[in-house]
Write a structure and sequence with these properties.
The chain has 358 residues and is α/β, with parallel strands linked by helices. Helix content is 30%, strand content 21%. The strands form 3 sheets. A 10-stranded mixed β-sheet has the order 3-4-5-6-9-10-11-12-13-14, with helices on one face. A two-stranded parallel ribbon has the order 1-2. A two-stranded antiparallel sheet has the order 7-8. Helix 1 crosses helix 2. The longest helix is centred in the C-terminal third of the chain and has 13 residues. It is elongated.
């Protein structure tokens, strides 16, 4: 199995090329080809000598896997299906140290959401998920493995809109902070001058609040944060989100309050609304108490029905009333538009499989 170059820093690329007897400046050329020009193969790196490309290709590959399929929504949203070989063990170098038997073949999905002059990529970080949220199709399929930084970045490089993307949200399959080593490497590439050169404010990471790595994210990154909240009451939240027992919401909120979100960096809270479960005045009051004094936003999300789940989404009138009461208490609150539901691309519906549009 060849080693993927995607995700490597200039220093790491320099170590690669010097080990092959190639000039040190070849590392900068490789980075430019991958991260600026977004090529898919070493053969496309035409300012590297043919002999140099042959040496590289003996052991290495770019790692930009082409999508295996695409589905197009009536609202213009696209869902791309990618084959991946993921590993269950954590660690930045797990892929290079793993044995063939450590890999599991799987599939993940990435969603491109167009909106006026914006094109946002909803990125996956794992195949499946270990968090087990009962209202999420990804969580219900179990955990297959962590994506490498290369597999995360391939979602940016291999789609039709690669050069047109304006934003990214780590809200696809998996819990990003459960795979922080590889997610942080991908974010480094996205924001570095030698990489994509994006501003951190173009990127949002969504998490249930994996506390040890949440601290690292808040310390090491300037990207936006979105926390999956969904219920202000611990017992009710635990009934839907088992992770509440390991990472209690009050501890997550307490950690976030230690950081400054008054500038360009934002924190938001995702709140999927279930009719008769978490959409009452009592829940409004609970959220108001929980978030009082925070510089934040609450995004209300319509629940998208999945098989064998008892709850349905709240009505529009309930959601509007919920929004208005939070807003009246000084909490910025919006109702998020639902996109891609007809191709199973909306929040909570990604399962790593779909039929390609004909």
């Amino acid at each position: 199995m060849k080693i993927k170059l995607l995700g490597k820093t200039p220093a790491e690329l320099k170590a690669v090329v010097t080990s092959l007897g190639l000039p040190a400046f070849t590392a900068k050329q490789i980075a430019d080809w991958m991260y600026s020009k977004r090529v898919h193969s070493i053969d496309e790196m035409t300012n590297i000598s043919k002999a140099g490309r042959e040496k590289l290709s003996e052991k290495y590959e770019v790692g930009a896997v082409a999508p295996a399929g695409m589905a197009l929504s009536s609202d213009g949203t696209k869902k791309y299906l990618f084959p991946v070989s993921c590993v269950r063990k954590s660690g930045l170098n797990a892929y290079e140290n793993a044995q063939p038997e450590d890999f599991e073949d799987a599939a993940i999905e990435a969603v491109m959401i167009p909106d006026a002059d914006r094109k946002t990529l909803c990125v996956s970080s794992q195949s499946g998920c270990r968090m087990g949220c009962k209202f999420c199709m990804t969580g219900r399929q179990g955990f297959h493995g962590h994506l490498s930084a290369a597999d995360i970045l391939a979602q940016f490089i291999s789609i039709d809109e690669s050069q047109e993307l304006t934003n990214a949200v780590f809200m696809g399959m998996g819990e990003p902070l459960d795979n922080w080593e590889n997610v942080s490497r991908a974010i480094e590439v996205l924001t570095a001058d030698w990489g994509f050169g994006w501003s951190p404010k173009r990127i949002t990471l969504s998490s249930i609040g994996v506390l040890p790595n949440l601290r690292k994210y808040l310390e090491e990154s300037r990207c936006h944060l979105a926390i999956s909240l969904h219920d202000p009451f611990p017992d009710e939240r635990a009934s839907m989100m088992p992770v509440q027992k390991a990472y209690p919401l009050d501890e997550v909120i307490a950690m976030i309050r230690q950081y400054d979100f008054t500038g360009q960096r934002r924190v938001s809270f995702e709140y999927t609304m279930f009719a008769g479960f978490n959409d009452t005045k009592r829940h409004e009051d609970g959220l108001i108490r929980l978030l009082r004094g925070m510089e934040c936003r609450v995004n209300l999300i319509r629940f998208h029905q999945i098989p064998d789940f008892p709850y349905k989404t709240s009505s529009d009138s309930i959601m509007e009333s919920f929004r208005d009461r939070l807003s009246a208490h000084g909490i910025t609150c919006t109702i998020r538009s639902s996109r891609g539901e007809d191709i199973l691309a909306a929040c909570g519906m990604l399962a790593g499989q779909h039929k390609e549009n004909q």
